[in-house]
Structures are given as C-alpha cells and as structure tokens.
Amino acid sequence: MAGPLALLALGWGLYSARRELRRPPQRLLIAGERASLDELPIIELRLHWRGWLARLDFTGPDGQGRCLLWWPDRLDARARRELRLAVAVSAPARDPRSMAP
C-alpha cells in the first residue's frame, strides 16, 4: 500500500509544481493604508513568518480569504524588510485598546 501512495504523492507534487510554474507573476502594491494585487484592492493584511518563509493573508475584492507565499529564494533581506514595514503600516492594531488603561 505504501508504494502506490508514494507514487500518487509524487505525481501530485509534480502536477502542483508544474501548475505553479505556469502561473503568471502578480503585482503586489502596498502604499500606506491601501493595498492592491494586480490593481484589485485587497484588505485585512496579515503577515506571518516561519523562519525565512513569509505568508501574507488577505481578503480579496470578492470577500474571499486568500494568501501569498514567498520562499526564501524569492525575497532578499531588503525585500523582506520592505514587506514587513509596508504591512505594519497598512495593518490596523489587533486590539483597539493598545494602550494601558
């Protein structure tokens, strides 16, 4: 049973890799409190880091939640810092009471 499942996993991995390589590049623009992906507005930006891996969760113009994922070879140190600062400026505070009472 392990052999056929391993072949199925390998096939799925190759199919996914081919699909991702054919996907056209997208243009992400974060300017102050406005953000857009391919010139469509996006809201509720949340940036998550797992070591060198970056994931940006957001809500698209259709109201559906989506995410972008950056692997370490796609963002150099300057681009990681720029992304971190841009999302920090555009994202609202998580708790409305951010100051001590």
From TrEMBL:
Organism: Lysobacter antibioticus
Name assigned to this protein: Uncharacterized protein
